[in-house]
Amino acid sequence: MSGLSVDFRLPVACPGCGSHLMRVSQVKNPDDKVHCASCGSYVCLYHEACSVLEKGPGSESEALIEKAVNRANR
Question: Whole domain around residue 38: which residue ranges?
Fold first, then answer.
């Protein structure tokens, strides 16, 4: 399924395992489900994830990590 999906990092961790790496379909429709890339748990809808990304990271170190991980997907 990795060929049909895109991984990205959220500043909010997965409630199941604590990972910040998330997975969404390549299409990125607002109502697409975002799942944890590590444990596969449902986290939120893509439009909700976009809202979290727009708010920005909580710290400078989070900002640097997100910039490095998400640069290929934007």
Answer: 2-73
